[in-house]
Amino acid sequence: MAAVPKRRPRCHGDHGHMPGSPTLPQTPVSPTKRISALDALRGFALCGIIFINIPQTMGMFTYAGQLPEPLRVFFLGRFYPIFYLLFGVGFGIFLRSAAKRSDKPRLLLLRRFLALAVLGAVLHLLQPGEVLLPFAVTGLLVLLPLSYLPRRALLAVALVLILAGVLAGVGGLGLLPGLFALGFALAEMRVPEALDDHPGRLAVLGVVALAVCVLTFWVIALPPPDAAQIRLGMTLSLATACCYVAGFLLLLRTPVGPALSWVLAPMGRMALTNYFGAALLFVPLGTAIGLPGSKRWTAAMLLGIGILLAQAVVSNLWLRRFGYGPLEWAWRCVTYWRSLPIGGAANAGEARGTA
């Protein structure tokens, strides 16, 4: 009797790649095959993050109570959860795509995390508290092992990790493993591709999250014991982030949606470049105008607005000529361990597909 050939283990997210079938070229997905709403949402998150990153890096506050109330209520801890979730989604989409192009997709993901760690370590010298290095460590220690789980188990683990992060009460980074895993699970379940199909679910998410926000804010105002306040604050951050996500994605469906997407989607497609580049700008400029240790909140906000406007213009102009942002292109070259073309003009971030 002839020996039965061994089947290659199916990678999580490896759809339709059977033994003996041709492997697609080991190259990244075209910039035209993206989900525009995710890019716009990522750009939206970048816009909120910078208004906390500037005063935090410039040493303008040491605890939340020193922030002006609008920043504390609407910005502090509200946008990073979105950023965490979207990076998890991106890694999930990447692994699914890589499984169609390589017999060792997790090796590509491993190189992706290692390259991000190097980039984060460099940025940390300029901006202590940056998130790229924690992203890389969390990816290596959490996402790679979890990528072997079935989808439903992955979703359950993600929710448990989020709850554990809240109960631990260690601050925003405590939510990173759970939100990374949740984003990864959503990518495996192909939720991003169906964003346009379920506006009712987005509305329900927004209403429930808003109710949690109101209830949590009321409890915090009582006030509760200190040990409970930080956990309630993290719950409020998560609920507010959910409100922002639902509201923003629904806003994209209105007549102002195309304009928002035109401005923010290119920024989101170049999120790594823009996140890194913001620190290259606001650290020297903030120092030059005397922000370190000061209470010049208006100057800090104007600096953030100026940087965002510059990034919106540059991102649009850059992507008219190239397919990827400069750091995104370098990241792909390291991931695939060879020189890759940076791509031609790619206005077509509108097309749906993988990122």
Q: How many alpha or pi helices? A: 13
Q: Span between N and C termini?
A: 46 Å
- Mean pLDDT, to the nearest integer, reads 88
Radius of gyration: 21 Å
From the helix content, strand content and strand pairing, which structural class follows?
A: mainly alpha
Encode the helix/strand succession as letters. HHHHHHHHHHHHH
Strand content: under 5%
Give the biggest beta sheet. none
- Tell me, briefly, the overall form: globular
Oligomeric state of the chains present here = single chain
Can you tag this structure with a few keywords?
355 residues, disordered C terminus, mainly alpha
Description:
By secondary structure, the chain is mainly α. It has a domain at 34-63 and 258-355. Helices cover 65% and strands 0% of the residues. The chain has 13 helices and no strands. The protein has helices at 36-57, 69-74, 80-98, 105-126, 132-146, 151-168, 176-188, 199-220, 226-251, 257-269, 271-288, 297-321, 326-336. Helix 3 packs antiparallel against helix 4 (105-126), helix 3 packs across helix 7 (176-188) and helix 4 (105-126) runs antiparallel to helix 5 (132-146). The longest helix is centred in the last third of the chain and has 26 residues, at 226-251. The N and C termini lie far apart (46 Å).
